[in-house]
Amino acid sequence: FAAPHHGFFAAGTPVQTVSSAPLPYYPVTVLEDRNATVALVGTDPDHDELSFLITSLPERGDLYDVVEGAETLIHYVPWKLASPSVKYWAGAHGCGMSYGEFKYTVHDGKEFAAKEALVSVNVVPVPDYPEVAPVRVVEVDSAMAEPVHLVLTDFDLLDICPMDVPYFVAKGLAKPTAVDQVVISTLPEVGSLFQTEDGVTPGEAIDEIDTVVTFTDIDPATGVMTAAVIYVPVTDVNQGGYAESIERVDYEDRFAFFVRDALMPDTPDMPVALFVTQRAVAPEEGDATA
Prior knowledge:
Layout: E1 25-31, E2 35-39, E3 51-56, E4 62-67, E5 70-73, E6 79-80, E7 85-89, E8 96-107, E9 117-124, E10 131-132, E11 138-141, E12 146-153, H1 166-170, E13 181-186, E14 192-195, E15 205-206, E16 211-213, E17 215-219, E18 224-232, E19 251-260, E20 270-277
Parallel strand pairs: 1-9, 11-20
Antiparallel strand pairs: 2-7, 3-6, 3-8, 4-5, 4-7, 8-9, 10-12, 12-18, 13-16, 13-19, 14-15, 14-18, 17-18, 19-20
């Protein structure tokens, strides 16, 4: 007599028909940033109606009991499910093999199954769009060069997302390093932009669109990448000197950039608005403006 694949149990005891000993187990695969509805399986030799109970929760991710389309977070065990299925959510950007594991059992109204079943959820990473932090209005003193920081987060850089799983191997992709590029798409109309390596000192002038900006900081632990440019305002926007009839004029300027990602399409243009305040200068003796 050959025992079935799920193992052999005495008659009358409910069992999970998922795998062989020592512990019933089966894997579930879901793409990153997606949830998975996991169908739980059990049978009973006496054909009794079975109840399904979650007996342990995943260390990473959450389980939800779904009743008529409404989801309820399972926050303690044992938890009796409304149906023989449960929804698993890994959390934003969570991924990895056996990323979430939980256990369940069945009950036939008289006793529990002899063994718990282990469910292991593999969360397959997929390329993420970089998230670009919006740059609000930058206030600039006309007498000073102003650094402008362009910050983005690329979750493909995170160490928690191994990229050696079949999805990436099949596409010939490796874990990226600084694959993103911050690209200037529109130049300022009045002032000028310059590269900077330290976020303070102006370097090479940026005088063409499609210029790639230098990164000043990359943090693989958080995926945060910071590029910076130096904006140099025009002190006399009227270009006519400060004669008595010509006043210093505050002005607005703007430029734009986008992020080029090796794994995803380019992001939309991100505008940067600058408000330049002309610094008042005390007139010298004999100045026509006095």
